[in-house]
Design brief:
mainly alpha, Rossmann fold, 4 domains, three-stranded antiparallel β-sheet, two-stranded parallel sheet, 19 helices, elongated, binds glutamic acid
């Protein structure tokens, strides 16, 4: 097993949790760094948790995030298509395979049929609890004769198949992140491998699939660490080579608790909707639990592929800090292509009623100028609607007393008169006008510095600080600017 092959193996719950995306991301980064393969496998053997379209939604979220798999299910023309030589990659389509391997285990004496009813198992569990023992299967069916068992099955009795956990043996393995782990089999339950509905349990399917798909590194959340010895017992029972195990620290919220739906956005789709850039989300997520060697914080996906290593993943939980994510996202927005940001911003601006379909079709450049004017201000795209209101109301309302006082300055009337005069000489503002305006006004009026810039800004936006003046002028256009000047002259000077 020399090739590097990693898998992300989610159960289709209907969405991808941000913590799961990080697992997938680390798989992706490492596989790409090593020239290996990153596989998506759908673990849908728990039929009680079935959700419609869950696989499609999951693939869509992963592909959007740029964590693209090499093998597994893909969406093409709205349909699920599986690609790769190790398929099928959806566990519910692999039942024949699990049946074949469970037969092998039974024959080798490593698994057995169990006919205990739910009522019996509940009773045993209750009794153990009362005695202060850890609830475990009491191995009632473990020594049942195989012929006897087959007769019961032929007679239509319900059954499960359990693992025959060896007695009193130390199971030892080295986790790349957590270090050496040893557990004695006396603490391991004779777990169910095949359920009464004929479906495999997670533990059984995961081992069979990781082996058959030639997975070299099993990367997953550390909630699975306790399950690993059970899986190793299975590898041993089959006589299969054991992959490397890498258990990642849980993604925590700022209160150091597990990041859960109740505290806000946790689904990848939520971040997409708000207008986070996928490369920024990935940049930030990579840093939740992993630290690069230097101080660099902003990474392109290519840089992450180059820098990433499991050795620098921390043993304990990584904190998901939305403020930090916002900062990282803001950095990526500033670097991003202006047309890309404009296209992402358009649906938000439209939904908020700032622009119409007609604007979208006929005034794209104007929309773009507006977006570019505030590109520096936003942390995520949907936030744009909080910054563009200054472009839509010509009745200026100075934001505070300082701004109001500024308009009462002695030189303001002359400044505004000169500004109006300049506007009246042109058909429409353009870049030349916008960029040369202050020079012209200074020459014309002799006013300079703060007394020149601030009143103009306040007249146009009501604010003391804000986007670049040149952009504001271009977005507003001649008529709106004149209206604003007139409004201020008549009401505020
Ligand atoms: N299906 C498991 C999950 O939902 C996968 C755990 C593993 O990667 O082994 O997280």
């Amino acid at each position: 097993m020399s090739d590097v092959r990693l898998r992300f193996a989610p159960s289709p719950t209907g969405y991808v949790h941000i913590g799961s995306l990080r697992t997938a991301l680390y798989d992706y980064l490492f596989a790409n760094q090593k020239g290996g393969k990153y596989i998506l496998r759908v673990e849908d053997t728990d039929r009680n948790r079935y959700v419609d379209d869950a696989i499609e939604n999951m693939i869509e979220a992963l592909v959007w995030a740029g964590v693209k798999h090499d093998e597994g299910p893909f969406i093409e023309d709205g349909k699920i298509v599986q690609k790769g030589e190790y398929g099928p990659y959806i566990q519910s389509e692999r039942l024949d395979i699990y049946n074949k391997y469970i037969e092998e285990l039974i024959e080798k004496g490593h698994a057995y049929y169990c006919f205990c009813s739910k009522e019996r198992l509940d009773k045993v569990r209750e009794e153990q609890k009362e005695q202060g023992l850890t609830p475990m299967y009491d191995r009632h069916c473990r020594n049942l004769d195989l012929e006897e068992a087959k007769k019961k099955i032929d007679a239509g009795e319900d059954y499960t198949i359990r693992l025959k956990v060896p007695d009193n043996k130390d199971i030892n393995f080295e986790d790349v992140v957590k270090g050496e782990i040893t557990i004695n089999t006396s603490e391991v339950d004779d777990q169910v491998l095949i359920k009464t509905d004929g479906f495999p349990t997670y533990h059984f399917a995961v081992v069979v699939d990781d082996h058959l798909m030639e997975i070299s590194h099993v990367v997953r959340g550390d909630e699975w660490l306790v399950s690993t010895p059970k899986q190793i017992i299975l590898y041993n029972a089959f006589g299969w080579e054991i992959p490397k195990f890498i258990h990642l620290p849980t993604v925590l919220n700022k209160d150091k608790k597990k990041l859960s739906k109740r505290q806000g956005d946790v689904a990848v789709g939520d971040f997409k909707k708000k207008g986070y850039l996928p490369e920024a989300l990935i940049n930030y997520l990579a840093l939740v639990g992993w630290s690069p060697e230097g101080n660099q914080e902003i990474f392109t996906p290519e840089e992450l592929i180059k820098e990433f290593s499991f050795e620098r993943v921390s043993k304990t939980g990584g904190v998901f800090d939305v403020d930090k994510l916002n900062w990282v996202n803001g950095q990526h927005i500033r670097k991003a292509d202006q047309d890309r940001i404009t296209k992402l911003a358009i649906p938000h601006l439209k939904e908020a009623g700032y622009i119409t379909d007609e604007d979208i079709n006929n005034r794209y450049e104007w929309i773009k100028t507006m977006v570019v004017a505030v590109q520096e201000k936003i942390s995520y795209i949907s936030e744009i609607v909080d910054h563009v209101d200054i472009f839509f109301k010509n009745e200026i309302n100075p934001e505070n007393d300082e701004a109001r006082e500024m308009l009462k300055g002695e030189q303001v009337p002359a400044l505004l008169a000169a500004f109006k005069e300049e506007l009246q000489q042109i058909n429409e503002v353009d870049e030349e006008f916008a960029s040369g305006l202050f020079k012209v006004l200074k020459k014309k009026t002799g006013i300079k510095g703060k007394n020149l810039f601030m009143p103009v800004r306040i007249v146009l936006t009501g604010q003391l600080h804000g986007p670049d003046m040149g952009n504001i002028i271009l977005v507003l256009g001649k008529e709106n600017i004149l209206e604003r000047i007139n409004y201020v002259e008549n009401n505020l000077v």
